[in-house]
Amino acid sequence: MNTQDIDFNYFLENMEAFYAEYGHRFVAVKNKNILGVYKDFDEALENTLKTEKVGTFLIQECFDSKEKMIHNFQSNVVPITV
Asked: What is the CA radius of gyration of the chain?
């Protein structure tokens, strides 16, 4: 399991506690540690890149339940004939 998978599992295991503490925010995670808490993804990325290299940390949005993390996108499918 790579570092990002470990950090993502850590986030999932603690997401409800993070939500209780931080609300609907974005957290930057590295090595099972919270690097920072931000109001939006862009702020989280910009600030975390000041101290961390790309690909070495995870940014996740906090929700009060895992079910709310799921996003469904629907679109029309148009058949293409060649």
From this structure: 16
